[in-house]
Amino acid sequence: MSSSSNAPGFDYNRWVINIRRTLESELEDDNEIPVSIFNVPKTLLSCDPDAYTPQLVAIGPYHYWRPELYDMERYKIDAAKRTQKNLVNNLQFDDLVEQLQRLAPKIRACYHKLLDFSNETLCWMLAIDASLLLEFLQIYAMKECKMLTRVSSRMSHLVDYAGRKSAHNAILRDIMMLENQIPLFVLRKMLEVQSASLERADDLLLSMVTGLCKELCPFKMMKVFPKIHHLETSHLLDCLYDMVVPKLQIRTISEISELEDPNEAMKCTQGSSEDDPGYIKKLLCATWKMLSKINKGPLRLIKKILTSKPIRFIFKLPWIILTKLPGFSILKQPVELFLNGADSEDSKSEEGSGGADKPPLVEEIAIPSVTELSDSGVRFSATTGNISTICFDSKNCTLHLPTISLDVNTEVILRNLVAYEASNASGPLVFTRYTELMNGIIDTEEDVKLLREGGIILNHMKSDGEAADLWNGMSKSIRLTKVPFLDKTIEEVDKYHNGRWNIKAKNMMKSYVFGSWQILTFFAAIFLLLLMSLQAFCSVYSWSRIFNIDTNASD
Asked: Which helix (H) or strand (E) holds 399?
């Protein structure tokens, strides 16, 4: 069979015509329009497909032809009829579509996916979808009394001014999904033909977008919301992203570096295992470091005696003989380390300290949970700002985090912001790094409870457990990135937590005692060595001679 056989249902002639038209329109338009409406990366889509796929209404071409979303078509047509009544200068809906067709090359350039249908079909689709979308967005311009027209009574069960109806929240989630966006300049054109002037249209669009973003912004306690530049943003999700994520200053390549394959990073960090003989060495090194810092009282004198050259020689002489015997070779390296100190390990750590500019590895993302941090003395303080307010005050042992509101829409909003950042951002993934931080410190509902009591989480969900599941489910990212101010906070928190004596002892026992059978073998061999020494000693000197006991005395 020929490999060039026709695929069933594929019109090659239509494909050629569409390609020719696309190329001609691209040549006519000299302005480069960046892609801003992407497909959700498969890595994220596989975790929770429903969070990225519209469930009630399709806005734009990506999901327009899905049969399960056809129920909203009647409401779209009704909204288009009301739009036609509001057109100025006796314009008809056909005239509006014709004006949008002049923007067709610009519209197509915004979409990552190839739109395999005519410009006329695309513009009719967008005009009808935008009519419904604008009618829905008008409720967010009510506070400023800038509504274009009242919401139809036929949509009263879908639109709720208080935002309590499930259908209203379902539409909110759908219109903020990455694959369910239409360019803002299309909405601007739709308002322009219904307003007395372009300035009036811009004013109304800004009030709608600002009201929507304030409603959906996770950081609702911000004292000052950043001003939205709707003429510079691409779509509704882009507006919300600009409001939530702080603008970072341009940094050098050494300050911002990224690791494209997280799996490779994970392999690099899995060098230590239970079969690694370095466990005993690390234990002795850690023990020696802890003892070397104690220079008070009788311990100081004992240290001087044990580390003196005569004592070392006395220990080394029989030790050299014992290590030649079968079964004692495993003890040679760790005991020599204990006798010689941990200088070699310190030199290695100093050599490795120059990697501050390296991208974070998978292991470095881990941070103690809220409960663990609280037990080690860390306090939590809520801030009235965005992500840029995150910091750790080492003097007061306080971790400052912005207040975030969680409700039925939050998970979809957060996931789509992460997906948009991963698809569009060329620099560090600031918002993704924030979600990784929250995912790291929240493990159980007890962690959520502590943050809720501290005013950091405003939980409007059913329970603290549901809020914990929300954060724990957001563990997938496209690539690892280094965000300086967030990584500094994580490093300082880890440094404080791991520097506590109780945490040091716990980690040492967990890593070197319970985590390795070799340390148990080591202590068993030491115990056996002591018994052998005792037996040898008793064979030479009897107990009666040591304690002056007369065994011949009569009762």
From this structure: strand 398-402
| Full domain range(s) for residue 532 | 504-544
Do 39 and 83 fall into the same domain? yes
Give the relative orientation of helices 119-137 and 73-86 as an angle to the nearest 10 degrees.
80
pLDDT of residue 275: 43
- Name which of 125, 132, 365 is nearest 259 in CA terms: 365
Tell whether 490 and 376 lie within a shared domain.
Answer: yes
Angle at 297 between CA 291 and CA 299, to 5 degrees: 35
Residue 87 CA to residue 324 CA, distance in Å, equals 98
Q: What is the pLDDT of residue 344?
A: 44
Show the tokens assigned to 327: 């079964």
Residues of the chain below pLDDT 50 = 1-5, 30, 250-277, 338-339, 341-364, 555
Q: Please give the Cα distance from 418 to 240 (Å, whole number).
A: 12
Report the run of H or E that residue 80 belongs to, with start and end.
helix 73-86
- The reply to whether 145 and 24 lie within a common domain is yes
Asked whether residue 82 is assigned to any structural domain, the reply reads: yes
Q: Which residues pair with 380 in a beta bridge?
A: 399
DSSP type of residue 296: S
Enumerate helices (H) and strands (E) in the chain, giving the number of each: 26, 7
- Reported as a single tens digit per residue, the pLDDT across 108-129 is 999 999 888 889 999 999 999 9
Residue 294, in any domain of the structure: no
CA dist 213 and 220 (Å) reads: 10
Per-residue pLDDT tens digits for 349-388: 444 444 444 444 443 467 889 999 998 889 999 999 889 9
| pTM > 0.85 | no
Helix (H) or strand (E) holding 213: helix 198-216
- DSSP codes joined into one string, 127-171: HHHHHHHHHHHGGGGGGGT--SSPPPGGGTTT--TTS-SHHHHHH
Do residues 368 and 439 lie in contact, with contact meaning Cβ atoms separated by under 8 Å? Answer: no
> In the prediction, which pLDDT does 222 show?
86
Indicate the number of domains in the chain: 3
Residue 174 within any structural domain of the chain: yes
536 in the same domain as 435: no
